[in-house]
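Hello,

Our lab assistant flagged a job as stuck in the queue for most of the afternoon. It eventually completed. Since we weren't sure the result was trustworthy after the delay, we are filing this so someone can double-check. Below is the sequence as submitted and the structure that was eventually returned. Let us know if re-running is recommended.
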Amino acid sequence: MTKDKLRLLLFDDCNRNCPGCCNRDWDLQALPLCQDYTPYRLIMLTGGEPMLYLEIIREAIAAIRRQTNVPIYLYTAMPEQLDTLMPLLDGVTVTLHTPEDIPVFQSFDRTAQNLTGKSLRLNVFDEVGTVICRPEWQVKDHMRWIPNCPLPEGEVLMRYQPSKNP
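-- returned structure --
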């Protein structure tokens, strides 16, 4: 099977300490650096928490766009400044881990101006509860941590090398 989706780890810094975080299961520094984005039909930017360093997200998108025009999605749990990045992205997956995440997400959802035509996915962990949002969001609720965090079929996980470390 070809690996046609790239999950690109921008860095491993995170402001959370989630009990089932997949980053604990992998040796992130041992991941290969991605230098060629052309083999992939979709690139997913992830971390750690990517929104901690907006400049690295912008830098990675620019590096990808110099090679290819495939869709780029961002995975985040911090949508506070996400609206500023949406013009650069084809989609976003926001994950809500705790009930405290709801007001921040709903504020983004109410005020965001750049969501038209984007893939919008919302992952809601079991303990979060019900979330009210725009109908454009594809909601996957009752999420649970997956032991050993296997990569989905067709995906490859690699690292991005930022011009300066966070």
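-- support follow-up --
The delay was a queue issue, not a problem with the job. The result is valid. The two ends are 35 Å apart (CA to CA). The chain has a mean pLDDT of 92.
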